[in-house]
Amino acid sequence: MAHSVDLTCLHSKCIPPPPAVLPRVSALPLRLAASLRSNRRRQRPSLCSAASFGSETLVSKEKGSGVASSKREEKEGDDLKSWMHENGLPPCKVVLKEKPSHDKKLRAIHYVAASEDLQAGDVAFSVPNSLVVTLERVLGNETIAELLTTNKLSELACLALYLMYEKKQGKQSFWYPYIKELDRQRGRGQLAVESPLLWSENELDYLTGSPTKAEVLQRAEGIKREYDELDTVWFMAGSLFQQYPYDIPTDAFSFEIFKQAFVAIQSCVVHLQKVSLARRFALVPLGPPLLAYSSKCKAMLSAVDGAVELVVDRPYKAGDPIVVWCGPQPNSKLLLNYGFVDEDNPYDRIIIEASLNTEDPQYQDKRMVAQRNGKLSKQVFQVYAGKEKEAVSDMLPYLRLGYVSDASEMETVISSQGPVCPVSPCMERAVLDQLADYFRGRLTGYPTSLSEDESILMDHNVSPKKRVATQLVRLEKKMLNACLQAVDDLINRLPDVAVSPCPAPYAPLLK
């Protein structure tokens, strides 16, 4: 999730300055790097075991902790906000409340609620920059450009690693109250469901048929590649995290711990607008995942002078959860990044990839015509919920181009302006048949039908992960069915619905 959330900070007080940046260390020869690693291991035993870390990861499992008393839960919520007030948070109009987790083995989750009645335009809270974690704080200005240009470590990985090392300091860390809150949330959004990146293989099967399943696996592979590069970046970046007297990253943390921390940070990170590169990605106490999400909300966390603030876009009664906009993201991204699906998401969409056949003797001419009409030889079409007919209409000229085979027809297409119009009834039937077969094929890839999905969602005992996965695939199927209906309607409007489709030796490819 890229959050389109803006944060602002006030005057910093009682906050230690960001760690000093040590002089840049030039790229080390591999032999020297290995020697340094060996020396560091001999100097002291590893301090990074799970036991000394206090829990498995930045996001602790907390199994069996669901019996915590309500007084203790309330006090911990107060701890975060009290810590913020002690360190520069001005009086605000929100309070931390809690609601039970779907998983009884996990503790309740906190959420930000209005502490008084609010009107649209009110500032709910303003978090000082001194309480916001950014790469500027983590790395210092002198190394930020170097790190980002290595193309080996993302901002999320860097922020996750920073808080993992901070957590090792326990209560000595300035960020201890915030880290404790992140541990409690475990990367769960306001539906209390983790990102599919932390689901088991069996749980991922709930997403069978959805492109999201492959996307989850690809994202997990990307996180593993970043983990494998941690040591290289550690040695090459010089000042990166050298203020911490611990072993190098892969000695300090296992991949599973790193992945869980990465996912937790992913669910919290805010994309600030109109700020420097070093402050673009930010972790803001009182921000996500403590804020609820709404695809139709217009309120965003915004960077202002010295702070990150939230101006609400609607009235609230005292006790109401505060909601923010999560950016124009489809439900697949919302689930992957935040563990939830918005049933009323105007940005929800599915993707269809079409490409001209490169074996077509007229491929170059068709590519030129496609580019003239704003399309590529490999074109991605986005089908938005409720706008399936428009998406099908947008695809047809591109697909017709792929079906043109006669040289004289191609000359007509080249000389004409605008999108490719129907050439003949049989060609139009071929194009529509290919589209219909494509949509039916995607629908058959799901193991359940729409009616079965409805039954699953009506079951109050279904697991939260299965519920949210079913919500996602159900919405995808609705869009695919709407596309198929639009194609069938066009077939029925052909002059002669019995016409046989034209042969298409170089039909465009759909996936």
From TrEMBL:
Annotated organism of origin: Turnera subulata
Gene3D superfamilies assigned: Rubisco LSMT, substrate-binding domain (3.90.1420.10), set domain protein methyltransferase, domain 1 (3.90.1410.10)
Gene Ontology cellular component list: chloroplast stroma
Molecular function in Gene Ontology: protein-lysine N-methyltransferase activity
A Pfam family this chain is assigned to: Rubis-subs-bind
Protein name: Rubisco LSMT substrate-binding domain-containing protein
GO biological process entries: methylation
Region Disordered, residue ranges: 61-82
Domain Rubisco LSMT substrate-binding, residue spans: 358-480
InterPro entries for this protein: Rubisco_LSMT_subst-bd, Rubisco_LSMT_subst-bd_sf, SET_dom_sf, SETD3_SETD6_MTase
Keywords: Methyltransferase, S-adenosyl-L-methionine, Transferase
Signal peptide location: none
Domain of life the protein comes from: Eukaryota
